[in-house]
Amino acid sequence: MTNRSPRLSVIIPCFNVEGYIPETVASCVHNARSDFEFLFVEDRSTKDHTYEALLELTKRLPNSRVIRHERNGGLATARNTGIDAAEGRYLTFLDGDDWLAPGYLAGLVEWIERLDVDFVRTDHVQVTGVNRMVHRAPEGRRHIPLDPRTSILPVDDTTMVDYPYAWAGVYHRRLLDRGMLRFHDGLRTAEDRPWIWELHRRAESYAVASLRGVFYRRGVASSLTQIGDVRQLDFFRSFDLVLGELADDPEAHRLRKKALRNYCVVIAHQLLQRDRFERSVAAELRRRAGEVLGRMTEEELNEALLGMGEERVDVLRRIRGGMKGVAA
């Protein structure tokens, strides 16, 4: 690497991904440039030899480093470790079981430099087995600078705060200098919910680019989304953080409605998938869901659940009484 700071830092948390990391590293090799750095954060894998695989595979990846945690800290903490070590003008993320199309990173840098915005968001390709499906970022205005706040509402439609994937975009270092971009340490799931809300509330500008070079692998057995243990319940803390940070926002009343809808959607999803949880975790899920719903007024619930669908409303109704008048 030259003496100059890199243009782009790529932060790649890795945990129990030995079977996938060869493809991930190979995709980075096909994106490497002399002004890009690659930071692999090995989060003390417990079931395989991810660390040893990284040490060997990254020998052929220029400007790469492997940073190993002393103890497992979870995805949010691993990303923060990478952020702390990053030297680039721009930062992006990649999960250790996903991969990139050749030239994708150059495209990210080209768009954020061309538009001179705080961050750029992109589409992505979801991979389930041999099937691939393009998922578009839910903002129709493309390739122009936008006010991030204008992409939070409406309440009852999918917006950019419903598309929280940190790896689907690139972020200017000035966000970090303004106290943004870091994740809440210790969050094991839904770590990107408070993160994306803060970006859209506090950043000054952003854009959406029609790049589809991130391949997001679904259904990975080691992924936390596939594991029904107590770590899944961290989504309660995540959304409580969103609501707490909204309290002082000048548009708190309007934005709170959207956050409550997000919260209810995720609660309903988890309740509908409760059979994958251990019995004690399922009981805790029901208890905490009841507490959250119980704190909402009837008016807030009606606005949050309007048009959400009968199945979701029914499962929430069983947790919280007094919802017979809520429209599905």
From TrEMBL:
Superkingdom of the organism of origin: Bacteria
Limits of the Glycosyltransferase 2-like domain: 9-150
Family annotation (CDD domains): Glyco_tranf_GTA_type (cd00761)
InterPro entries: Glyco_trans_2-like, Nucleotide-diphossugar_trans
Name of the protein: Glycosyltransferase family 2 protein
Organism listed in the record: Streptomyces eurythermus
